[in-house]
Design brief:
The protein is of the alpha+beta class and 688 residues long. A hairpin with a 2-residue loop joins strand 15 and strand 16 (564-566).
Length: 688
């Protein structure tokens, strides 16, 4: 309520605003004014460059270098896929943890790490590619072609991974150049029970007591990478009230969406996404019940989906709150009223909102097909659809193909499709069967997709035959498909491929409809709205997060909740007390090593802390640093109060907090619980 009143007053005063610690800012436009005015912090250009070059994107999360020898730290839950793939029945590193006592013992993983080494504003080149009189679809194609050309030239010139990134709904385009480390090795990780103590009950709440960390290392040419840009490790961690910065790659916010887009998300998009994720999670739970190995294989996916569903529920609750939703209505009205006062600007930009409203009015009719009209939930289904689509697309002129099948990207597809990979047929069958059954419930037996996928058969029968009889799990078979011709592919009787062939026309039709009638329209309209916002307010707010490097800021601080106070930190004492309070019952069970080493630990050492920086999913693993560029924590979660910040910033006086693992707590665990002396020595030596 405090925030709503504040927002309304600011609009009445016609003042564009950014509240307190709001914003996931790009490195080209850091909030230097706010830092100086609120916290008295004035970083040098060298400070900012080191922060950017020490920050890493890994998988769907964030990480950072913490030594000059390629040592990386991130969250355990960010690295859980890596740990799981390296595990086996005999060596279950998720359950028992892992430590490499020497460099030679570090385990090579299937992973890569990316660092943003440079960036360039290419807005004029992308916008300038659009020809006069182009339709929305043509304009989108022309911008895409321009971006692809910029990326291709950049990669050829620099050898880096180059990506053109859309900002402000297409109001700006930036070329990001990433250095990629593709030899990543596991150094040490605690048991999953120590990293996720409290399980889903404690997820998105505070106090927390999780040792959610993992150390990896980047290698080049078979040796530890030389990484001169890194964060020095703080032994003491942050103090109450201390200014801190989080540098990471937040996944996605939607704060610049129109009211029409938010209404669709509230009424159709989020409920359909919830159904999709619940179907996946329930299928994994079902698979996990088949045995111990199956449970281990499913655990990471179940945990990730449970986390996503809990976050989605908080986001949806925010949209369903009339008082909170009204802030977006007031914001949009203010901008449109200001445009009306300027005839030239209004004529140029006002139609954008109407165009989006019309596009989104038709979208609910197609929502089920766009979400459930596929078989990609099974990896073998994904590969089947990919090869069918590949031959369909390669028969077209290059200009008419989907972007992923054009010349500059086709080799990447062929390499991935023909690579030697492991497939889990048992899991795929459970997943596909559950997916098709849910699709029948949502769409009905008379839906064209269901008719094409199942015919007169049942989901159980189609899924079982498709998965059990397919040969797509054979690398030789897949490579043979790449070497075949379209006529040979059309004659294949492999049941997974024939299933993919039956539904591909419907997938293509839905995709083309969505691109022409929604995506292209909102892209062109989004650019107009962004330009209108720039014209009225200037560049006073950061763009929406998009899984690329950002920098957020705030202070370490507890908060009020209902009638009590929540402290800014938790301790090892609190961890053991919580386990005792629940009589060591799961998920409040102590990990084996935490139980064994209790007498060795200084129970006063902090484990987790909260701070006010603006973060969201994707920030997991982000280094939390102080003004001296020392790492004082690892972001790993947020509390419930913060969940709706996908759509708007929830200020700190509402109790909105990010949650981090304390750097001192990690050191205490490395030293006294896991005997990881080699890692401790490297961290402390690098901090001198």
């Amino acid at each position: 309520m405090k925030r709503l009143i504040c927002v309304l007053l600011l609009f009445l005063l016609n003042v564009p605003f950014v509240i307190a610690d709001e914003g996931m800012w790009t490195y080209d436009n850091p909030p230097l004014k706010q830092w100086k005015e609120i916290y008295g912090f004035e970083p040098t250009a060298e400070w900012l460059e080191n922060a950017r070059l020490a920050s890493i994107k890994i998988g769907g999360g964030s990480a950072s270098f913490v030594s000059p020898n390629g040592l990386i730290v991130t969250n355990h839950h960010v690295a859980s896929g890596i740990i799981s793939r390296l595990s086996s029945k005999e060596k279950d590193y998720l359950k028992n943890g892992f430590y490499a006592p020497t460099l030679a013992d570090e385990l090579k993983a299937e992973a890569e790490a990316r660092v943003l080494v440079s960036y360039e504003d290419v807005t004029s080149r992308v916008h300038g590619s659009v020809k006069s009189g182009a339709t929305d679809a043509e304009a989108s194609e022309q911008r895409s072609d321009a971006a692809n050309g910029i990326e291709k030239d950049c990669s050829a010139t620099t050898g880096l991974r180059c990506t053109v990134v859309s900002m402000y709904s297409g109001g700006e385009y930036w070329l990001y150049r990433f250095k990629v480390y593709d030899d990543i090795r596991l150094v040490t990780a605690p048991e999953e029970q120590a990293a996720f103590f409290g399980g889903d009950y404690d997820n998105f709440v505070f106090p927390r007591h999780d040792l959610d960390y993992t150390f990896l290392r980047a290698y080049e040419n078979g040796k530890p990478a030389v990484t001169p840009h890194y964060f020095k490790w703080s032994q003491t961690g942050p103090k109450d009230g201390e200014f801190v910065i989080a540098s990471g790659s937040p996944g996605a916010t939607a704060r610049l969406l129109t009211v029409a887009q938010l209404e669709y998300a509230r009424d159709f998009g989020n409920p359909m996404l919830k159904a999709s994720w619940e179907t996946r999670r329930n299928a994994l739970i079902q698979y996990g019940k088949l045995g111990e190995d199956q449970q281990r294989e499913a655990a990471g996916g179940i945990r990730g989906l449970a986390n996503s569903l809990k976050r989605l529920e908080g986001q949806e609750n925010g949209l369903l709150n009339p008082k909170m939703f009204s802030t977006k209505q007031v914001e949009e009205k203010d901008l449109r009223d200001k445009l009306k006062a300027k005839t030239e600007l209004n004529a140029k930009y006002a139609s954008a909102w109407t165009d989006i409203e019309k596009a989104y009015a038709e979208l609910p009719k197609h929502s089920a097909t766009l979400n459930f009209g596929n078989i990609s939930i099974a990896r073998l289904g994904l590969f089947a659809s990919s090869i069918v689509r590949y031959y369909d697309q390669m028969a077209l002129p290059e200009a008419d193909r989907f972007p992923e099948f054009r010349a500059d990207r086709i080799e990447g597809f062929r390499k991935s499709f023909g690579s030697d990979q492991k497939f889990n047929k048992q899991m795929d069958e459970v997943m596909l069967r559950s997916w098709l059954k849910e699709a029948v419930k949502i769409m009905g037996r008379d839906h064209p997709f269901i008719k094409a996928a199942l015919g007169d058969a049942e989901a159980d029968e189609v899924a079982a035959r498709a998965v059990r009889e397919t040969r797509l799990d054979s690398v030789e078979f897949r490579r043979g498909l790449l070497a075949a011709d379209a006529k040979s592919i059309a004659k294949l009787t492999d049941p997974m491929i024939t299933l993919a062939r039956r539904i591909e026309p419907l997938i293509r039709e839905a995709r083309v409809w969505n691109e022409l009638n929604v995506r292209d329209v909102e892209e062109s309209a989004g650019i107009k709205i962004a330009q209108a916002r720039f014209a009225v307010y200037g560049k006073t707010m950061p763009p929406d997060a998009n899984s690329n490097p950002r920098i957020s800021f705030g202070k370490v601080a507890g908060y009020e909740e209902d009638t009590t106070l929540v402290p800014f930190k938790t301790t090892f004492f609190g961890l053991y007390d919580r386990a005792l309070g629940f009589e060591d019952a799961f998920p409040f069970t102590l990990s084996t090593k935490l139980r064994e080493r209790r007498d060795k630990i200084d129970l006063s050492v902090p484990v987790n802390f909260v701070y006010t920086a603006d973060t969201i999913g994707g920030n997991s693993g982000s280094p939390v640093i102080n003004r001296n560029a020392e790492l004082v924590g690892l972001n790993f979660d947020s509390n419930n109060q913060k969940l709706s910040n996908k759509y708007w910033y929830v200020p700190d006086d509402e109790g909105s907090r990010a949650v981090a693992v304390h750097s001192g707590g990690i050191l205490e665990a490395l030293r006294k619980v896991y005997d990881a002396d080699r890692v401790v020595e490297e961290l402390l030596a690098a901090a001198k």
